[in-house]
C-alpha cells in the first residue's frame, strides 16, 4: 500500500518540481539525418507490401516501439486510428472509431481502460546531406501502444512504457497541458523515453498552439520547434508523425545473439487459445516450438503459437530481438502469467529483467451477490474477470446483513466502477457494492501494527490499546484557470490538504500540488472540484511515497 501519514500529524516534504534536464534526448545528428528533410511513403504502406511471416527483415534498427500518452480525451485513440489507417493496418472508414478501445465499457464511456498494442509497417526514406540520394525507402516495423489516460489506470501506462523507447505526448491545442499530461510526461521521462510533443485538435476554433508550445517549454523544457501540429479529426499534419517517430525515437536496445529474454507485458484469457501473453523480446529469438521458462514461477512451457498484433493476432512463427508480439504457451490461468516476469529459453541461464512496481490498491469495497444464493456465480464471474485484470485484489469476506461476498482492492474509484460495470456486462453478475474505504494502519500499545481495510475488521481486544493511526496520503496535481485559485485553496484546506507547490503555467492557468489524505478524495472531491471551477479543473493524484 502507499505512503501513510499519521492521521493526526502532518509531515511536510518539499516538492520536487521544476525544469528537469533532458540528457536522454536523441540528437538528430547522432543518426546523421537532417531534422527537416524527411519524406515518407504512406501510400506505399499497404498490408500487401509486407510478408508478415518474415520478420527477419526487421532487425532492431528497423523497429520503433512507441506509446501515445495524454490527458483524457486529448485524442490518443483517434490519433492511433489515423496512424493505423495511414499504414494500411486497418481500412479507412472501418466504421469503428477508437479501434483499439475494444471493451464495451471503453466504447460506452469513451475511455481507454486497457493498453493495446498494434504492429504497423511503414516505408520511410531518409533525406539529408549525409544520406545517399538514391537510397530506397526502407521498411520499418512500428509497435504502437495505446494507453489509458485516466489516473486510475496509470499502472497500465507504466507497463506499456516499459516496452517503448519513445512516446508521443498528445496535448489538446485548446485545453493545453492538463494534470494527466504532467503525470504521464513524468512517467515517460523517468523511463528515459524520447518524448515527441504532438499538439492535437488544431482544427478547433479555440485552438492556440503557440500557448501550448509555451506551456510545454515552461513545464517540461520541451523545445517548441520539436512539437508536431495535428488534427486527428481532419488529418492535418498527420503525415509528419511517423517520420518523426522513425527519425527521433531510438531503436530498441538488445542483443540478437544473446540467449532469449522477454518481458511479459500483459496477458488475457481467450476461450479458444487459453492464456495469451503480450511480450517484448529484449534479447535473442523466440520460435514456435521453443521451450520457455518463467523466472517468477520456474514453470516451463512449450510455445504453441507466436506472432504480432496486426492489429488482430497474426501468427509469424518467430519474434526477434526488439519485437513486440504475443505468445500462446498452454498456460492455464493468467495467474501463471505474472506481468513484469522474464520469460527465457528453458535451461539457459539469464539475468531476469527488472519487473514492474507491484500494484497499489488505493480503495477497497465489498462486493456481494444481489441475490444471496448467487455467491458461486459471482465467485466464478470475479475469477474470470480478474484473469484479465490482475490489478484487482480479491479476498472472501462475510457480512451479517449481506451474507458471503468479497473484499476487492482497486487502483481508484473509476477502476472500481469499471470493474463493476464489466462484471455486469461481460459476466451477467448482479452485485451490491459497499461504500469504498481506504486502508488504515493501527499501532497498538504492545508495539504491534496492523493494516485494516474494512472498518468491520477492526479488532476490539481490550488488552490492546490503539496508540497511533496512520492513513494513506496522495500527492494531487491540480491545474485550473487563475480565477478559481481561491476556491480551490479553500477546498483543499477543508479536506486537510497541505500545499506543496503553487505556480502559474502562464497568465491564465495555475498549477498546484497538494498532499491530501486519500480518504478525503475518494468520495466526492473530484465532483466538488469540478463544481467550484465550473468544470475547468483538471486533477490527478499519485501515491505520495
Ligand atoms: N475537433 C477535434 N476533435 C478530436 C480530434 N481528435 C480527437 N477528437 C475528438 O476528441 C474526443 C476524444 O478523443 P479520443 O481519441 O477518444 O481521446 P483519448 O485521449 O483516447 O481519450 P481516453 O481514451 O479517454 O484517454 C473524441 O470525441 C474525438 O472524436 C481532433 O483533432 N479535432
Automatic annotation (TrEMBL):
PROSITE patterns: G_TR_1, G_TR_2. Keywords: GTP-binding, Hydrolase, Membrane, Mitochondrion, Mitochondrion inner membrane, Nucleotide-binding, Protein biosynthesis. InterPro entries: EF-4, EFG_III/V, EFG_V-like, EFTu-like_2, G_TR_CS, LepA_IV, P-loop_NTPase, Small_GTP-bd. It is found in: Mitochondrion inner membrane. The keyword Nucleotide-binding applies. GO terms for molecular function: GTP binding; GTPase activity; mitochondrial ribosome binding. GO terms for cellular component: mitochondrial inner membrane; mitochondrial matrix. Residues 61-253 form the Tr-type G domain. GO terms for biological process: positive regulation of translation; translation. NCBIfam families: lepA (TIGR01393), small_GTP (TIGR00231). Promotes mitochondrial protein synthesis. May act as a fidelity factor of the translation reaction, by catalyzing a one-codon backward translocation of tRNAs on improperly translocated ribosomes. Binds to mitochondrial ribosomes in a GTP-dependent manner. This is Translation factor GUF1 homolog, mitochondrial.
